[in-house]
Amino acid sequence: MICNEVNFSKMEKMMIQGRIWKFGDDVDTDVIIPARYLNVSAKDELAKNCFADIRPDFAGGVLVGDILVAGNNFGCGSSREHAPLAIKAAGIRVIIAKSFARIFYRNAFNIGLPLLESAEASTGLSDGEDAIIDLAAGRIEGNGRVFQARPIPDFMAKLIDAGGLVDYIRKVKIGK
Amino acid sequence: MSMTITEKILAAHAGRDRVSPGDLIEAKVDVALANDVTAPLALKVFGEIGVKKVFDADRVVLVADHFVPNKDIASAEQVKLVREFARRQGLRNYFEGGESGIEHVILPEKGLVLPGQLIIGADSHTCTYGALGAFSTGVGSTDLGAVMATGEIWLKVPPTILLRYEGSLQPYVGGKDLILHTIGLLGVEGALYCAMEFTGGVISRLPMYQRFTMSNMAIEAGGKNGIIEPDETTLAYVAERTSLKPDIFRSDPDAQYEKVVNINVDGIEPQVAFPHLPSNVRPVSEVGNIPIDQVVIGSCTNGRLEDLRDAARILKGRKISPSLRLIIMPGSPLIYKLAMREGILEAFLDAGAVIGPPCCGPCLGGHMGVLASGERAVATTNRNFVGRMGHPKSEVYLANPFVAAASAVLGRVGGPDDM
Questions:
Q1: Does A42 touch chain B if contact means CB atoms closer than 8 Å?
Q2: What's the ipTM?
C-alpha cells in the first residue's frame, strides 16, 4: 500500500513504499534548495528546484511516496524551512539518514515530514531500488534486508499525533 | 546542583530551579526574529494558528536584509508582505531601507538583544547573540510562527561542549581563525545538538566583534548555540547601547560538560576553509597557489566596523589585483557612516573596491556579487557549500578580513605575510 498523504494522527498504520533517492554526508539546505529560489514561498514552486544543482534529475523524476536516504548530518546549514517543504512537496514521504542537523530535524517534523535515523539502513539501501517502511515501528525493508531505525522520540510522536506543530499549538496551547 | 550558563538561562525561562541535558522544556522567549526570506512562511503559520496579535509587539523583530534592496519582483512581494504585517501589528522593530542592516549586526548594535535573554530567530546564524551571554538559537519558520503567537518554544536542553582557548594569538589571527580552527577540529557535525561554550584567557581578551564572529559560526559545527559568559567587555558593549539592565548568568565551576576541549592558540595561523565545507580548513601558509576572481568582505560573520578597520589596515595605500572584484558590504548604516567618517571607505574605493549596501546579498548567492561557473572567491562569510555564492561549479574560500584583503591585493588566496 502506498501512502499518498502523510496523516500523522494515524501514524501507527502508516506504510510507505517507494523508490530510494540516495545522497551522501553533510547535505546542506543550500543544495536542497539554492537561495536564488527563495524569493517565493509556494511549496510547489520550491519543489521544482529541489536539488537543482547537485541532482538535476530529482525534481522531474521523484514520485509521491518515494524515500530519501542520506548519510550523516542531513540538512545542515541554513535554517530555511523551504528545504523540507521542497522535499515534501516533491513527493518524498520519509527521510532515512545516519543523523540529521538540528534545525532541519525540527522543521521536518513541524511540517509533517517524518525522519528516521538508522546508520545500517543508510549504508545498506541502494539508489533506485524500492523500500517499504513501517513508520511507527521504524521498520525498513529494502535490498532484501530488514533494518530497524531508532524509534521516533515520544515528544515528536506527540507533535505528530496532534497533526504537526500548528495543530499542536491550536489544540494544546490556545485551546481552539 | 551545578549548571552551565546555557542550563541556567533555559531553567530561568522555563520557570524551573534547574534543568539537565535531555530535559524537554517550554521556555518563554524574550526576542523573536525573522527576515525577508523566513518571515513570509512564518506569517502564514501565524495566520493558521489563528491568534490576532503577536504575543508582544515589542519583542517581535523583523528585518529585511537578505534580498534587499529588492532584487526582483518576487522578492519585493515578500518584503511587502512582511512590511504590511509589521504595520498592522504595530511592531516597533521592523527594519527596512536606511534603517536596516544585517539582522545579526543590527540587533546587538541597537541594544535589542541582551545577556541572559532567550532569543529565537528564523535564521540559523541567530546563534551570534551567544557572544553576549544569551541563549540564542536558530529555528525554521513554523517554529518562529508559533513563537510569535505564544511567546514560548519547546526546547530540548542540550549537553554542553566546553572549548577553552589559552596562549597568545599570532598577528592577523582572531575570532574567525579560532572558530574555523575549532570547526576543523570538531567537524561540521562535531557539536550536533550541543551547546558550545567558549572560554579561557584568549576569549576574555577577545574584543566583542571577534566574539560575535565565533558565536556566529557555532552552527557550522552543528551547535545549537555558541555562548560566552558575560564579562566587563560584554557589559561595556551593552551599556553603550541600552539602559536596560542585563541578567548575568555564569557557569558553576563544577558544572557538568559533555566534553572539554583545550586549545592552545600559540601555533594557530590565519585559517582558510576550502570548498565545500567550513571544516575543510588549512593554515594560510599551506594554501598553495589558488588564483581568485572575487573577494567579499562583510556579512553577519565579519561585517562590523572593526572588521572593516582590519581590512583597511591591509588595503590602505594599495591597489587590488586587476584580475578580480573586491566587494565590501558594511553590516549596518551606522557602520557605513562611521567607516566613511574614518576614511575607511575612501581607502577601499582608492584600492578599487565596490562598496555595497548593508545586506546579506552575495553571502548566500542572492545578489550583488554572484559567482559564475568556475569562479573562485575568498569571503569573510560563514559557508562555502556547493553553489553557496552562485554557480554550482564556483568555489568559496572562507577567511578573516586580513586574509580576504591581502588576497584581493595578491590576486590569489594568501595572507598579509605573503604581500
A1: no
A2: 0.94
